């Protein structure tokens, strides 16, 4: 594994982004969507590119046996610090693996999981196929594969909301942009990713949007107050509903695809 490009981004991502209303909405909506498909705890869950554990620690708290694999030592340190603040019984349910998702099967010694998550990772890879093949391989028979990534069909949304009209016009047919963390990112379509998981023996079950209105508000210049818990909960409930329905889910800048290994 080469240079840890995430080392300089750990705090911005793990503390700032997730402390925002958008960060809360993301974790909440994804968690609810996952629970629609996961078997009951303590089923084993592998989180590939699991970062600081924002999505998988809540699953450990819910009783799942979580393995978090990440290629960034800095991000794994952050995850360990965050886990240390959780109760002992949650801590016992989490295992960390330092490794590249492209070698996930070997990194977990061929273990098979009831669910394999990969959220917010594919966009940083030039070619998603090798990693997606590994996700599918690590899922046991009947296991769930859950992938969240950028939606190539909504690339004009952010520049348009930021009133960068020339960029918006140029972005309709592009796949790449500098993301909110300042790192170049690449987007996929639901159809292409569905085809990739099918090649790995995983049948697509359902796809969702993730957040929508919080993007419109934030990029439009409205500040949302993360300390107003009633408003935050009400926002998350609306976003969850929108994430399940057309046309709203189609306009989300990220999508969540869930499949099952046959
Ligand atoms: C945007 S963060 C997402 C973290 C987490 N999945 C979440 O949703 O909060 C991307 C993470 O992917 C990890 N990553 C990027 N490329 C990877 C690879 N090839 N193998 C394993 N992890 C990778 C990074 O180190 C970082 O922790």
Architecture overview:
The protein starts with 9 loop residues before the first helix and ends with a strand. The strands form 2 sheets. A 7-stranded mixed sheet has the order 3-2-1-4-5-9-8, with helices on both faces. With 262 residues, it is of the alpha/beta class. The protein is globular. The mean pLDDT is 95. 42% of the residues are buried. The protein has 13 helices and 9 strands. Bound molecules: S-adenosylmethionine.
The secondary-structure element order is HHEHEHHEHEHEHHEEHEHHHE
Whole-number radius of gyration?
Answer: 17 Å
Helix content: 40-55%
Overall pLDDT confidence:
95
- Low-pLDDT parts are none
Gap between N and C termini, in Å? 32 Å
Structure annotation, total helices: 13
Major sheet: size, sense and barrel closure? Answer: 7 strands, mixed
Question: Largest sheet, order of strands side by side?
Answer: 3-2-1-4-5-9-8
Q: Provide the β-strand percentage band.
A: 15-25%
Bound molecule kinds, no repeats = S-adenosylmethionine
Shape: globular
By DSSP, the count of extended strands is: 9
Structural class: alpha/beta
């Amino acid at each position: 594994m080469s240079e840890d490009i995430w080392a300089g981004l750990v705090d911005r991502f793990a503390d700032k982004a997730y402390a925002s209303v958008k960060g809360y909405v993301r974790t909440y909506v994804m968690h609810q969507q996952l629970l629609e498909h996961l078997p009951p705890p303590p089923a084993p869950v592998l989180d590939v590119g699991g970062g600081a554990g924002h999505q998988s620690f809540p699953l450990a708290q819910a009783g799942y046996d979580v393995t978090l694999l990440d290629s960034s030592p800095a991000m794994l340190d952050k995850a360990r610090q965050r886990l240390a603040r959780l109760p002992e019984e949650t801590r016992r349910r989490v295992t960390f693996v330092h490794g590249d998702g492209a070698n996930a099967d070997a990194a977990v010694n061929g273990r098979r999981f009831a669910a394999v998550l990969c959220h917010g990772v594919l966009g940083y890879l030039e070619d998603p196929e090798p990693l997606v093949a590994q996700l599918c391989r690590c899922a046991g028979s009947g296991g769930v594969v859950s992938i969240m990534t950028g939606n190539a069909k909504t690339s004009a949304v952010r520049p348009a909301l930021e009133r960068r009209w020339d960029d918006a016009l140029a972005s309709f047919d592009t796949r790449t942009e500098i993301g909110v963390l300042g790192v170049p990112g690449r987007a996929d379509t639901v159809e292409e990713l569905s085809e990739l998981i099918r090649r790995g023996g995983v049948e697509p079950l359902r796809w969702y949007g993730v957040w929508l209105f919080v993007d419109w508000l934030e990029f439009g210049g409205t500040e949302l107050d993360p300390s107003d818990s009633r408003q935050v909960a009400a926002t998350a409930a609306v976003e969850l509903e929108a994430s399940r329905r057309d046309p709203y889910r189609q306009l989300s800048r990220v999508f969540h695809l869930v499949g099952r290994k046959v």
